[in-house]
Design the sequence.
């Protein structure tokens, strides 16, 4: 009989992927395109979107410039074959005005997609993905929430697909709440193994460097 895993009994990882430098080195370095695509696919497919393929990392990690790069507002930025832009960030500590800040980063990236004199038709979708190691909505939403532009009285009508914000509250995957939108009601503390691709990625992000049966 297998013993369920409990986050309370798991040793602290020596290297945390919720550190922005470590996250950027793992997912934003040259050669990590396939790894980042797999992570983004798990996030997007949790809400029924298609797989992310053929990524190009547009702000590759450079250790020498990491500490002095004040212009880098996201931990990884990538573009897929349809020219859709992905902004990915991780936050270990609660940030003041996090929600408007994420929206500001999206708006800045979106407005940069068109130059003076170009038609607005050249604008492409910008998808924000934020992994946060704290609660944003106080348990009122699933740990993985996705926000879009929708008509209020007819929410099935989407204005367009150019704005999509995925917020992943990492502690919620351990709390007994739904780990992901499509997962069963069990969470990491109630089951031996994470059951969906997204849950497995979150488990890896939270426990990288810890040796247990799942990480093996």
Sequence:
């Amino acid at each position: 009989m297998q013993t369920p895993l409990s986050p309370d009994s798991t040793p602290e990882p020596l290297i945390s992927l919720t550190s922005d430098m470590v996250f950027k080195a793992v997912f934003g370095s040259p050669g990590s395109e396939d790894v980042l695509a797999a992570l983004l696919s798990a996030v997007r497919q949790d809400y029924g979107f298609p797989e992310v393929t053929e990524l190009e990392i547009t702000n590759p990690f450079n250790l020498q410039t990491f500490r002095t790069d004040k212009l880098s507002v996201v931990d990884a930025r990538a573009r897929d074959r349809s020219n859709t832009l992905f902004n990915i960030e991780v936050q270990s500590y609660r940030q003041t005005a996090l929600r408007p800040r994420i929206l500001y980063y999206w708006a800045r990236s979106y407005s940069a997609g068109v130059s003076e004199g170009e038609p607005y038709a050249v604008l492409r979708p910008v998808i924000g993905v934020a992994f946060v190691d704290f609660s944003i909505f106080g348990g009122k939403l699933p740990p993985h929430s996705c926000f879009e532009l929708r008509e209020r009285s007819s929410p099935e009508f989407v204005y367009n697909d150019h704005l999509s914000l995925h917020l992943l509250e990492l502690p919620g995957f351990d709390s007994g709440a739904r780990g992901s939108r499509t997962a069963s009601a069990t969470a990491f503390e109630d089951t031996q193994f994470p059951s969906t691709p997204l849950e497995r990625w979150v488990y890896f992000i939270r426990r990288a460097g810890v040796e247990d049966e799942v990480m093996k």
Residues 7-207 form one domain. The first strand starts at residue 56 and ends at 57. The chain has a mean pLDDT of 82.
